[in-house]
Specification:
The complex is a heterodimer of chains A (120) and B (321). Chain A is α/β, with parallel strands linked by helices and 120 residues long. Chain A has 5 helices and 5 strands; from the N terminus they run E-H-E-H-E-E-H-H-E-H. The N terminus of chain A is likely disordered. Chain B is globular and about 70 Å long.
């Protein structure tokens, strides 16, 4: 269970609200469990998505991940938000391996998003 | 008149590598339906991780249905200390005095782990196993990364598809530069996981179910008509597929047994099917990797993803410093 979902402060609309998540602090150095990733995405990211201007995911200290995690977390986000994700999200502190996983998961999500919205 | 207790003794073979696994699974199947099953380990000299977790999953299945498990031949078993060190007896619920001091497992084996549904289980167990099997490697090393990845994907599958307890065991064979990992559960089996999904008809037999599960993008969790918790999909159905390709790239093996279904691939080449009679009610998956054929984990993973049609697009400036 994820405890204490982020309580989002109601901020005046003219103030930018930025979210920064330390992935190593939340999940450790190996991001493995897709179910946990999907749960976190839903409770901690999607719940505030429309109210934040930017989301920064810091992968400093993360050495590896599974495709299950990458796709459940970031693939789902890309599928949901499409190009908006590219404008709003930044990945920092990525190793070569982490970058490769993220790049493929996001690309796959974008492909699905584009397929779903083709002709819309 | 009290009916006689139904008992049977199953002697474990002296040596079980993957080649002898079908024979072991057939031997274990005769325990079904008995109230007491004695596992005779007197001849045991070597059991591969797949054999170890298969025996444990089978015994836990019998115990879950009210059966009782006994151990025979412990004092005649020349490999008893090894079985004690990896907690094989403990997981059978057998408490036996040890005439040795436990010491760090020092790059040969790790104790068997039982997988439960607690948060953090998959990443913690995967990392512990990888650290124990490869104590001289760093997390940034290619072989460490691939071992951790394969373990993580196998455990993720077992955690959500077993419906019960799963066991994981790993060993390293320094002479052959080989690492082996196996996960087994006594759950619904792969075919069972496709029941009431939109692809149920494609998983009509256990062999069909294995091939369906190996297809990229197929996960029974995503094929159910009911919405998933938290929306999105927790499984993309690529973990097992990519593990299979990575094992082939690393000149390793992949073995899957579920019900009467059997699949085995070596160096990416499927081996002939086994003779009838293989029976394992849950799911058993074993992977081996050759350490000296793992050169660039990130590149091997990217190649594997490209092989199933998942390559990177231009994601603009999403990556910062």
């Amino acid at each position: 269970m994820i405890e204490n979902p982020v309580a989002v402060a109601i901020t005046p609309s003219h103030l930018a609200m930025n979210l920064e998540i330390s992935m190593a602090r939340e999940f450790g150095d190996f991001l493995a469990d897709g179910h946990v990733g999907n749960q976190f995405r839903s409770l901690r990211i999607e719940s505030v998505w429309s109210r934040v201007d930017s989301v920064k995911f810091d992968f400093e200290g993360v050495t590896n991940m599974t495709d299950s995690f990458a796709h459940a977390f970031f693939g789902n986000m890309a599928e949901e938000h499409g190009e908006e994700l590219l404008a709003k999200v930044r990945f920092i502190g990525c190793s070569k391996v982490v970058r490769s996983f993220l790049s493929i998961a996001v690309s796959e999500g974008l492909r699905r998003h584009r397929e779903m919205h083709r002709g819309a | 008149m009290i009916p006689p207790m139904s008992r049977i003794t199953i002697p474990l073979p002296p040596r079980v590598f993957e080649d002898q696994l079908p024979h072991l699974l057939r031997s274990l199947a005769v325990g079904d339906g008995h109230e007491e099953v004695s596992i005779d380990i007197s001849e045991v000299k070597f059991l591969t991780p797949a054999a170890i977790v298969a025996v444990l999953a089978r015994c836990h299945g019998w115990m879950a249905r009210g059966g009782r498990i006994f151990l025979r031949g412990a004092h005649e078993c020349e490999n008893l200390r090894y079985l004690q060190r990896i907690d094989f007896l403990r997981h059978l619920g057998i408490d036996m005095e040890e005439d040795f001091h436990r010491h760090p497992t020092a790059d040969r084996f790790v104790p068997i782990q039982a997988l439960t549904f607690a948060r953090g289980n998959v990443d913690v167990i995967s990392s512990e196993i990888t650290r124990c099997v490869l104590p001289n490697s760093e997390p940034s090393d290619d072989v460490y990364g691939m071992m951790q990845y394969a373990t993580g994907e196998l455990l993720s599958n077992a955690k959500y598809h077993s419906g019960g307890k799963a066991f994981v065991c790993a060993q390293v064979f320094p002479q052959r530069n080989l690492v082996r990992i196996a996960v087994a559960d006594d759950g619904q089996g792969i075919r069972g996981s496709f029941v009431n999904t939109t692809r149920e008809a494609d998983a009509a037999t256990p062999d069909d179910a294995i091939r369906l599960a190996l297809q990229p993008g197929v996960s029974s969790a995503n094929l159910r008509p009911v919405p998933q918790p938290y929306g999105g999909r927790s499984h993309r159905g690529v973990g097992l597929t990519i593990t299979r390709i990575l094992a082939a790239q690393a000149l390793g093996e992949l073995t899957i047994s579920t019900e009467s279904g059997w699949f085995r691939e070596r160096h990416g080449q499927e081996l002939p099917p086994q003779s009838p009679g293989v029976s394992f009610p849950g799911t058993l998956v074993a992977v081996s990797l050759h350490r000296d054929h793992i050169a660039d984990y990130a590149a091997m993973h990217a190649t594997a993803m490209a092989e199933i049609g998942m390559g990177p697009l231009d994601t603009g400036g999403i990556f910062g410093d």
